[in-house]
Protein: Isopropylmalate dehydrogenase-like domain-containing protein
Amino acid sequence: MFDFHYFDWGTDYYLKNDHMMSDNALDVLSKFDSILLGAVGDPKVPDHITLNGLLLPIRRRFDQYVSVRPCYLWKNTDSVLKNASNLDFVIIRENSEGEYANIGGFLHASNEFETSIQTAVFTRMGCTRIIEYAFEHAISRNNKLKVTSITKSNAQAFGMVMWDNCFKEVSERYPNIATESLLVDAACMDLVRRPEDFDVIVASNLFGDILSDLGAGITGGMGTAPSSNINPSKNLPSMFEPVHGSAPDISGKGIANPLAAILSAAMMASYLGYSKIEDIIRQAVQKTINDNII
Structure:
């Protein structure tokens, strides 16, 4: 059914070769239908090298502009929130531009006048297509039929204002979907105060990144948090990965939680057209939790 190929790219590869992956890695990956990425990271390698040497090039080359991060509190799993139940929402994160556009630089390095410039890039196309995806995802989930947009347009008066305008324009094409717009600081508070009210959240690269970790934190932790990096056209491969890092501090102790990686593989199976496999895996995960195996 599946033809798997394994590649040893990552931080170990970097320590041996001074590159996170081979020079032709992106050309090699372009021939596959999907990518299942294991957790990467090592204290000996700065995080910005891990991110810019592996993850971001893959996302950009294959236009994986949608990051889907489900936040689901499994039955018989405790939340850090008192009396939490029925938590089931999804964060749709813009994955190709915004605050992670990697545009900027340093001036007068290593002296008292050192200056750094980091530019966020928002395009109408980029904002519109991720917001459209969020509305379509709300329809496919058929849960609360609600989309919440997260920005900081009161303080960031250009890119975020355009995002707000795009959200308004797209929402008018979906009259049966409830909408909500929140500033990111208020959204952080509301995810803790009223998480059961959310269905689909759509946010920029940075805000989606932060909020999805908060979402994982209130629904069982990083050990059960899968994610995907999607190119909806399916003309190029999409990538699936656990939200967590490599956790070198618990390496070799036999206590790492594999569920996030397993659930990421389940999302990949569904993306490839095998939704029944995803259902079976999710049932197995719930039974594993019920039986106190993890």
Q: What stands out?
A: The beta strands are 34-36, 66-72, 88-94, 98-107, 115-121, 146-151, 178-183, 200-203, 226-230, 238-242.
